[in-house]
Design brief:
Number of strands: 4
Shape: globular
CATH topology: NMB0513-like
Order of helices and strands: HHHEEHHEE
Low-confidence stretches: none
Strand order of the largest sheet: 2-1-3-4
Number of helices: 5
Mean pLDDT: 91
Largest sheet: 4 strands, antiparallel
Helix content: 40-55%
Structural class: alpha+beta
CATH superfamily: NMB0513-like
Number of domains: 1
CATH class: Mainly Alpha
CATH architecture: Orthogonal Bundle
Strand content: 5-15%
Radius of gyration: 14 Å
């Protein structure tokens, strides 16, 4: 999985969470167990945060958030609303739910740090 995660880091700037979801779960699109897919997504964000590619981001202030929390805590905080905003998400094949896809497409609270010199929020 680390190889797939490393490959995804190369093109993550400006992507939506939905695009990232599709890229990191591409081998599991059929009969993907929702909880495993979400764990995989959070694992990817943890990895990307630890590599200084993704940062937590306050879109209202248009500023990155450097909390000094562990990458796992930050990744979990970014997606802390996933179950609340998707109460009817199916246990298998979550992208069968239009609400879940909308959540992934419009998810904010993070941005990409490009070569340490630019912040790129997801393009929505």
């Amino acid at each position: 999985m680390l190889k797939e995660f490393s490959d995804e880091l190369e093109c993550v700037a400006g992507l939506s969470v939905y695009s990232i979801w599709k890229n990191i779960n591409k081998n599991d699109n059929e009969d993907l167990i929702t909880e495993e897919g979400i764990t995989n997504l959070i694992d990817f964000f943890e990895f990307a945060i630890s590599k200084n590619v993704i940062v937590e981001y306050d879109e209202k202030k248009e500023l990155p958030i450097f909390s000094e929390d562990s990458p796992r805590v930050v990744a979990e905080r970014i997606f802390c609303d996933i179950w609340k905003k998707n109460p009817g998400i199916p246990q298998v094949n979550p992208t069968d739910s239009d609400d879940f896809i909308a959540y992934l497409v419009y998810k904010t609270g993070w941005a990409t740090l490009v070569h340490g010199t630019a912040i790129v929020p997801p393009q929505i």
